[in-house]
Write a structure and sequence with these properties.
Blueprint: H1 27-42, H2 46-57, H3 60-80, H4 84-89, H5 95-103, H6 110-145, E1 152-154, E2 160-162, H7 167-190, H8 195-211, H9 218-245, H10 251-279, E3 288-290, E4 296-298, H11 299-329, E5 333-335, H12 339-360, H13 362-372, H14 386-423, H15 451-464, H16 467-476, H17 494-500, H18 503-538, E6 546-548, H19 552-561, E7 568-569, H20 576-579, E8 582-583, H21 588-591, H22 604-618, H23 622-638, H24 647-652, H25 656-665, H26 670-697, H27 704-724, H28 729-752, H29 754-758, H30 767-790, H31 797-828, H32 840-868, H33 881-904, H34 918-930, H35 936-950, H36 966-973, H37 988-1016, E9 1024-1026, E10 1033-1035
Antiparallel strand pairs: 1-2, 3-4, 5-6, 7-8, 9-10
Helix pairs in contact: 2-10, 3-5, 3-9, 3-27, 5-9, 5-28, 6-7, 6-8, 6-9, 7-8, 7-23, 8-25, 10-11, 10-12, 10-14, 11-12, 11-32, 12-18, 12-33, 14-15, 14-16, 14-18, 15-18, 18-37, 23-25, 23-30, 25-30, 26-27, 26-28, 26-30, 27-28, 28-30, 31-32, 31-33, 31-35, 32-33, 33-37, 35-37
Protein name: ER transporter 6TM N-terminal domain-containing protein
Domain Integral membrane bound transporter: 645-788
Main location: membrane
Length: 1046
């Protein structure tokens, strides 16, 4: 093995390090040399730093403006309470305006804010009707059972309330509150897009429900409900004004920012891919050393880790765009790009994402080779490893041959992404210097009109140079390489054909073609994007702004889908940590099941009976079970308001906020419940401390100006964490709400006076007592919610993870089935024109994209629930975290390779360069005869999905589909079809990519089956006879050892 050359970063300053005589001996130079030394030690290069800077700085300006917009609503609401008409309108309920303004999430982009505000207002309107009904029934119960004269008293809203306790009114109000909370939270579980509206509805219902038994007449009810509703609507109005006036932002701005970040991440992934391939050029790439942290690692592992982290970030951003693009398309706007252009842009990005995803999987492929072929043994110096050492050296030589073509292609792709940014006005083009031509820089630059032609030349040159690595491979195998000539069809030495039949040689060849094909496909996809961007510049789309309105069909589609279980992005929902950021619909086929106890209805009576069965089945659903838990938890505190001995105590100590904390804190799993419990407690503690600090910094006497300025500053800081770390949204929201409660109450007392405040029945507390009491109330409510998460049986994150893995496998089986039918349609020529929206090819493509988006969203959910598992209390044995982690990774890998297989087979029918040959037609005929892939994979995935969902063992003797090598099968049918003389044929590279993807799919299926088998077990019908003379057992029916399942 030759020693590896030391690679030194060279960014224009490295040479000065070796010429210290030219540097003046000044402190400035010394600092510069130290900075240069730190730069070299960091291992970063200028292009890496530039890419990282782009990625982290693209959203900084937008986030800052969002902070400013989001910090104003609660401050304005608190300031309005100092206005006398506002004080008269809301004697003691003014703080609800500030809370409603916070929960309105005014920092969201326009489409999501408007949609959320519509549902918020609808929720309050429904709450108004339900509150009037419950209060009316409570008042009627009081009037029907009370014999004494009602003695009115001023209540907390300024309305007259009864002094006497009435058990009938309390019982009626309690029943209404219980079923109200149950129905609301059942809807919250089944329709996660209504999280915020239902939480606001729950706050409204809790306040109205606990005060309902105290009202003496409907006049008092009208006054109370009017003030309560107006307080909520005032908060909404403040949020609406702030959203549209203070630095307004649209969903289009979010998409634009995400697309710019997408371009930066694409460049980062391609640079990481280039550095990974460069690491494979070195002879000691697998040589392990100890780094500065004391960990044993190699250059290969470092490059592989960087590539995997980059593609993971790109996949996360792609999944986010999948959910934000529909909001941008349905938005009213004044700009350049229409909704159709936004959809086309995301479609082009998807076409870039798939080959880049496949190209990044090279790290996984070589990792499997390192493990399977035991490449690390090449460094132990034994003669037995000479074959492995020679194989490593072969790959080193191949990667050096690929270096220059890949370097130029990646540079051209990066330039194409910059060109698109300039055309779409995402960035300003760099001004070209006048003397570029004189300096010999006549090449087109990004932003130039002729850059498309330059990029096409770069792609064509790379495609023409793809034979260089194949020549190196042929030289290693000691066989001649003849460039393919479609006119003469020269033959190749039969030695090459015989040698090619070996698995190892075929793997090497296919991997070379794999990398070349995917990088060229990436370049072609970028060229398509550049062509589309130039078209928008040429037709005047980017030259003038205009009003853009969503079509009637799009609005109608949104209205229909608003009440369905749909894919949505809950990035900043109140309990976004619980929903794992994304909500995924599995489709109707997942829930529809034939009833084995009933035939389909044949008459009207049977159809009515079927409707009744559906209604009854709702009450045993998981949604109603969750709503029942929340209702029981709420009533655990609300019962204090409905008993004679404690009703006054409930009102005096403001225990209604403990009930509200239950509505906010109840989660679907105990792991997220623990996280939420700790987070909300910590957020309330921080809010209490900062409220005390604000109050006393402002003079300790409640000077409104000083308090409001400091509140704005604190909320501004809180929004930083909320926008940058969406997982901590509940903590940030409860912190802002607690500030409004504590400081709003004290400002209210300063305005109306202690005497007026205590007329409501609530005891006055100075701020140094109110803060701890508020903390105790929040912690008490969160504790009750935490207890009911475990009682009567725990809803664990592990259970949710298992069920969601089963759902993901169901989606994966559906996805593979669609891919299978797409491939078969291409081979049979029955797909029609892909440009025709009604053709089978177009419909299958739309379904593939939809399912891929769902699978990417499910990936985020699975990893989020996996992170909550360590937070749970484990009763019995430990949770098999390693098995589930490996299972999640296998599912992710399987999804990627199925996508790659689908992408590669699109070139079976037509060469992208339009050079179809007789060879390609012959290949398609043979592939059509084989029937393509089988449905065995779909059946296996469905079995694994059902087993995980139900927790049932797998059937006996279940095995993955056989490793069907299509290349070997084709060689047996026609020995010349895959011979070396066809290396440069159109479609040969795509065939190689499909074969590699198929092999990796089979490997991942084997791993997936084994992991599921380890979790749920396998039914065993083998028979054992135990000898009475010894402890040994004799197996009568032999077979593999299987886990015993009772």
């Amino acid at each position: 093995m030759t020693a590896a050359k030391e690679v030194t970063p060279n960014d224009g300053v490295g040479s000065s390090r070796n010429t210290p005589l030219d540097a003046p001996a000044t402190p400035k130079t010394s600092i510069g040399m130290k900075l240069q030394s730190l730069w070299i030690k960091s291992g970063l290069k200028s292009r890496q730093l530039k890419s990282m800077f782009k990625y982290f700085s693209l959203v900084s300006s937008m986030i800052t403006l969002t902070w400013l917009r989001g910090a104003w609503p609660p401050v304005i609401a608190l300031a309005l309470y100092q206005y006398e008409p506002f004080e008269i309108a809301f004697p003691t309920l003014g703080y609800l305006s500030a809370i409603a303004s916070v929960l309105s999430l005014s920092f969201l982009p326009r489409a999501r804010f408007v949609e959320g505000m519509i549902f918020n207002i609808a929720g309050v309107a429904i709450g108004l009707g339900v509150a009037l009904l419950s209060c009316f029934c409570a008042v009627q119960a009081r009037l029907a059972t009370s014999d004494s004269t009602i003695q009115p008293n001023i209540g907390p809203s300024g309305a007259h309330q009864a002094v006497e306790y009435n058990s009938s009114a309390s019982a009626v109000a309690a029943v209404f509150l219980f079923f109200n909370i149950l129905a609301a939270n059942a809807l919250r579980f089944s329709r996660p897009q209504f999280q915020v509206p239902i939480i606001l509805y729950s706050i409204y219902a809790n306040i109205a429900g606990t005060f309902a038994p105290t009202f003496a007449s409907m006049i008092a009810v009208y006054i109370f409900v009017r003030q309560l509703t107006t307080a909520f609507l005032s908060g909404f109005a403040i949020a609406i004004v702030c959203h549209f006036v203070i630095f307004p932002s649209s969903s289009r701005d979010v998409v634009q920012t995400d697309v710019k970040a997408y371009f930066a991440l694409l460049q980062k992934v391609l640079n990481a891919e280039r550095e990974y391939l460069e690491s494979m050029e070195s002879a000691d790439t697998l040589h392990e050393t100890i780094d500065d942290d004391g960990k044993t690692t190699s250059r290969f592992q470092k490059a592989s880790g960087g590539l995997k982290s980059s593609i993971a970030a790109l996949s996360a951003l792609h999944a986010k765009l999948q959910t934000t693009v529909p909001y941008a398309k349905r938005e009213f706007a004044y700009g350049h790009i229409s909704a159709k252009d936004i959809g086309n842009l995301f479609g082009k990005l998807r076409q870039i994402y798939l080959p880049v995803l496949g190209l990044s999987s090279v790290a996984d492929i070589f990792q499997r080779l390192v493990k399977g072929r035991n490449w690390k043994s090449a460094y132990d110096g034994s003669n037995e490893n000479s074959t492995v050492q020679a194989e490593v050296e072969e790959w080193n030589e191949i990667m050096r041959a690929l270096h220059d073509p890949f370097e130029h292609a990646i540079r051209g792709i990066s330039g194409g992404l910059e060109h698109v940014s300039y055309c779409l006005k995402y960035a300003k083009p760099v001004k070209s210097e006048k003397n570029d031509v004189e300096r010999g820089l006549a090449t087109a630059r990004p932003g130039d009109a002729e850059y498309l032609q330059h990029l096409e030349e770069v792609s064509a040159k790379f495609w023409d140079r793809r034979a260089e690595a194949l020549k190196v491979w042929c030289m290693q195998k000691n066989v001649p390489f003849l460039d393919y000539n479609p006119e003469t069809k020269e033959s190749v030495d039969m030695r090459l054909t015989r040698m090619f039949s070996g698995d190892h040689s075929r793997q090497q060849l296919f991997l070379i073609l794999y990398m070349e094909f995917l990088l060229h496909a990436t370049a072609e996809a970028v060229i398509d994007l550049v062509r589309d961007a130039d078209r928008m510049v040429a037709d005047g789309t980017m030259t003038r702004r205009r009003f853009l309105f969503p079509g009637r069909r799009r609005l109608k589609k949104w209205l229909k889908g608003a009440f369905k279980i749909e894919d949505s992005n809950n990035e900043h929902a109140i309990d976004s940590y619980e929903e794992a950021i994304y909500t995924v619909s599995l489709g109707d086929a997942f829930k529809k099941r034939k009833n084995p106890e009933h035939l389909p209805p044949s008459n009207t009576f049977e159809r009515l009976g079927q409707v009744m069965l559906k209604i009854v089945s709702v009450f045993r659903s998981n949604e109603v079970a969750f709503g029942f838990r929340v209702a029981c938890a709420t009533m655990s505190i609300a019962i204090v308001a409905f008993l004679q001995a404690t009703q006054a105590f409930f009102i005096e100590q403001r225990l209604v906020w403990a009930m509200i904390m239950v509505a906010i804190s109840m989660t679907m799993t105990s792991g997220s419940g623990i996280f939420g419990f700790a987070g909300r407690g910590f957020g309330t503690l921080v809010a209490m401390c900062s409220s005390l600090a604000i109050w006393y910094i402002a003079g300790g006497r409640g000077y409104p100006a000083g308090v409001l300025i400091l509140v704005w500053c604190v909320i501004f800081v809180i929004l930083y964490f909320l926008l940058n770390y969406p997982r901590f949204t509940p903590v940030c929201m409860i912190t802002m709400v607690t500030h409004c409660l504590i400081l709003g109450y004290e400002l209210q007392v300063n305005k109306v006076g202690i005497e007026a405040q205590t007329l409501s029945g609530q005891v006055y507390y100075p701020i140094y007592l109110l803060g701890p009491y508020r903390l105790a109330t929040v912690v008490g409510g969160c504790t009750v919610a935490f207890v009911w998460t475990y009682f009567p049986y725990p809803l664990t994150a592990g259970n949710t993870l298992r069920r969601q893995l089963g759902q993901t496998l169901y989606l994966l089986s559906n996805y593979y089935s669609v891919v299978h039918h797409s491939t078969q349609a291409r081979l049979d020529s029955t797909g029609g024109n892909p440009d025709d929206k009604t053709s089978p090819n177009a419909l299958l493509s739309r379904e593939r994209n939809r399912l891929l988006g769902k699978l990417l969203a499910m990936q985020t959910q699975l990893r989020t629930h996996l992170s909550f598992v360590p937070l749970e209390f484990s009763f019995g044995g430990k949770f098999p975290t390693k098995e589930y982690k490996a299972l999640v990774e296998s599912v992710d890998s399987l999804r990627d390779y199925i996508s790659l297989h689908s992408y590669a087979t699109r070139d079976y029918m037509h060469d992208p360069h339009g050079a179809n040959t007789q060879w390609l037609e012959d290949l398609n005929k043979i592939l059509a005869q084989t029937g393509g892939a089988s449905h065995e994979i779909t059946k296996l995935l469905i079995l694994l999905s059902s087993s995980l969902l139900d927790g049932q063992p797998l059937p006996p003797y279940l095995s993955p589909p056989s490793n069907f090598t299509l290349a070997k099968f084709l060689s047996e049918i026609d020995p010349e079809i895959l011979s070396a003389k066809h290396f440069l044929e159109p479609g040969y590279a795509s065939f190689a990519v499909a074969q590699i993807a198929g092999k990796l799919i089979n490997d991942d299926l084997c791993n997936l089956l084994q992991h599921v088998k380890n979790l749920v077990g396998e039914i065993d019908f083998s028979f054992h006879v135990t000898s009475t003379a010894s402890t040994s057992a004799t197996r009568l029916l032999t077979g593999e050892d299987r886990e015993k399942v009772d």
